[in-house]
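User: Predict the complex with flavin-adenine dinucleotide.
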Amino acid sequence: MTTALILGAGVTGACLALALSRAGVCVTVIDQAAPASGASGASFGWINASYSLTQAHFALRAEGIAAHHRLSRRLGTHLWDWPGCLWFDDPAALPEGYDAIPLTAAQVRQREPLAPDLPALLVPQEGAVDVAALTLAALRASGARVLCGVKAEAVAPGHVSTAVGDFTADHVILANGCGAAPLVGLPMLRRPGLMLISRPLPRVLRHILALPGQDLRQDRTGRLLAPLAAQHQSDTAETVADIPGRIAEAEAALSALLSHPVQAESVTLAFRPVPGDGLPAVGALAPGLWLAVMHSGATLAPVVAEGLTALITGGTAPLLEPFSPARLLEA
Ligand SMILES: Cc1cc2nc3c(=O)[nH]c(=O)nc-3n(C[C@H](O)[C@H](O)[C@H](O)COP(=O)(O)OP(=O)(O)OC[C@H]3O[C@@H](n4cnc5c(N)ncnc54)[C@H](O)[C@@H]3O)c2cc1C
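Assistant: Here is the predicted structure with flavin-adenine dinucleotide placed in the model:
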């Protein structure tokens, strides 16, 4: 039986474990900490194709939305919400060919009474997922052996060294987010992501809101999720200054927007795994050694898992071709 060792029990490693297991591969996952302890445990979880950098990126992200629906048929639909997004930002920022319906301010008010009194675009195909819950559900459904507290210190085709001994497998896959950079010399951008999670509120929002300077959604528990970076998916800040000040500012701004007191219950900070040119780095590094590192992993993990599984089991994945890691490692 073909064996695979996945580094990283985040959403990428978990979706890959499930896809490989379903293809008949015997999978082990190791994580230096625990499942969803990296970016996947601190994600906004918005599934979208809005922030596409190239046409190929748009095609991958659009298929990423479809891959979530395929995955939800396997894992149960309870992890996902598909409310659509109200886009108040610059319409020109949406990719060409992306479905978006113009709404007047009155139509917006009818759908989302507390949203700003402005026209917007409705992007009906977008949704959100609890990324940590998806990670755990995919790992559980995969039947893979998951070893926590095991850090990869060096990798080679079919081989991983750790402090508790060496591992071998037919295929080693680095799905360990920012942790992949030092192991294979992958250039990465430094992109800290800070997010406010509020105390539960009565239902105040139905849609995901993309406002200039603030993305926002309310999850199933009533908590608001609010990344504290303007347009967080295209944010380029390398540091986060004055965290207490930003939290207080966000609480005040959200309370004013929603006419309801909003208080932070917790704040998460995680580095987003952004390869050097901003695009996913997915594919072979050498025979038996693979890489899957990307931002927007909440959107992309299921489609990348499908494609990488096809490649590992001898098939093709045309959507992944433009994202081969060679472009970054050979530069
Ligand atoms: C604030 C914020 C908001 C976001 N919002 C969105 C969004 O709305 N939509 C979207 O699509 N994406 C979003 N993202 C990005 C998305 O969450 C990430 O791209 C995705 O979670 C990455 O998942 P991953 O499994 O690749 O990496 P991670 O979740 O970081 O997992 C990597 C795992 O590898 C382990 N690890 C690292 N090094 C080693 C090692 N040497 N050995 C063993 N294990 C190791 C870590 O412990 C970790 O568990 C957001 C991210 C943040 C931080």
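The chain has a mean pLDDT of 95.
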